[in-house]
Amino acid sequence: MRAGLFKITLATLIGGFLTWQLTKNNSYIQIVYGNYTVDMSLWSLVLILSILFVVTLLLKNTIRVIVDPSQKLIKDFSEFKAKKNQSLISRGLLYFIQDEWINARKDLEKSAENSPMPIVNYLAAAFSAYEAGDFEDADQLIAKAQKNNSKKDTAVVLIKAKIYVRNKNYTKALEILKPLLKIYPSNSTILRELYTIYVNLEDLGNVKKLLPDLKRYKVFQKNKINEIEIYTYRSSIKIISKNNATGTEDLNKLWGKIPRNLKKEKTIFLQYVTKLYEFKEEAAAESLIRRFLKSGWDEKLIRLYGLIAGPDNEKQLIFAESLLSARPDNPELMLAIGRLNLRCELLVKAQDCFESSIAIQPKIETYVELAKLMEYQHKYKESAVYYKQGLIVIHNE
User: Fold this and answer.
1) Tens of pLDDT along 67-79?
2) Mean pLDDT of 112-122
3) Does residue 21 surpass a pLDDT of 80?
4) If 0-12 CB within 10 Å is exposed, 13-18 middle and 19+ buried, where does residue 171 land?
5) Does some domain include residue 8?
6) Based on the number of CB atoms within 10 Å of its own CB, is 5 exposed (0-12), middle (13-18) or buried (19 or more)?
7) CA separation (Å) from 224 to 229, 323, 388?
8) Between helices 364-376 and 331-343, what is the axis angle to 10°?
9) Domain tally for the chain?
């Protein structure tokens, strides 16, 4: 209030002073422009210039009053539009996480144009379209992502390769991934997808070639790498053919290359001794299995032990029977002991073991062993009964 009173008082004094000067001061000024002449007092010119200044100031403030709200309105509208688009992106990503593929594709594609990273929107939308089963739409969205890929990011082609892998189109996926691996040899995604392809194609050679890089670049955790190594060595043993003249030699060479810790893996060990059995290297197989079963247990190994004809049948039988104290009710152990008794021509004991195994768990192969035993003793009716009971077991399974 005081400031306003001061301004009014100041304006009154200045106005009074100017009025006084206009009446007392007779100075004048003449303005000549071509044929035109204008005469006025000096203070009249000052007054005119002051009025022009005030009018200009008022006009400027009027324009600002008109323009500023419109600018603010435009700014507010832009912010509202950006927030709405960001909300659409967030919703699309939530749908994506929740595997709601149709809604995710719709929101992510719709918000892509005004997204700060449109390539991410298009790639996520493409993956969603693929998961929803719309492969054509997925390809179109990948093409849009490619157009926005100004930095030539590998993400676009990797998503395309992933879609091919999921669709089991391994040929097209390999066309993308192989050249990329040469450029980015340590890229975990490329290595992981290649591993998936080679495993599904049962391409053991390429899995073995890939294994050092999978370990070097820590593509998988240690337990997964261990699984891959087990798969690789087990499969390598499995494909060695017994028809090959050097089959046994190749088998033993491969066994020598396998790390000591992996030789203790049951699946690898079982595959190796099974191959020895197939190659008629039964003495070696019997010795290895016996050594293994002294410190560990595996039903598949004890089953194989009963099939192997070692160098000393009686010694083999005694060892198998020594395992009964720890596992008296194991059907596989009883079956193996029955077979070993049969090999030692202890027919009554063999029959007892087979019947004990069936009492614990009926199995077709145990019934077959009993049927063969009856045939050997010329008990054909009993043999037929056991064969029939074995067929019933198969039917029930």
Assistant:
1) 555 555 555 556 6
2) 81
3) no
4) exposed
5) no
6) exposed
7) 9, 34, 45
8) 20
9) 1
Per the domain annotation, does 298 fall within a domain? no
- Residue 64: CB atoms within 10 A of its CB come to 11
Does the CA dihedral 151-155-159-160 come out positive or negative?
A: positive
DSSP-assigned beta bridge partners for residue 28: 41
* pLDDT surpasses 70 at 317: yes
C-alpha span between 383 and 371 (Å, rounded): 4
Range of the domain at 120: 75-146
Q: What was the pLDDT predicted at 285?
A: 96
Residue 95 lies in a domain: yes
Whether 374 maps to a domain, the answer reads: no
Contact assessment for residue 109 and residue 141, using Cβ atoms and an 8 Å cutoff? yes
Type and span of the H or E element at 262: helix 260-263
Give the least confident one: 65-74, 125-134, 318-327.
65-74
* HSE value, Cβ hemisphere, 13 Å, CA-based, for 55: 6
The four Cα atoms 207, 210, 216, 221 give a dihedral, to 10 degrees, of: -40
Q: Could you tell me the CATH number of the domain that includes residue 117?
A: 1.25.40.10
What is the separation of C-alpha 214 from the centre of its chain, rounded to a whole number of angstroms?
A: 15
The DSSP symbol for 31 reads: E
Quick one: average pLDDT of 3-20? Answer: 60
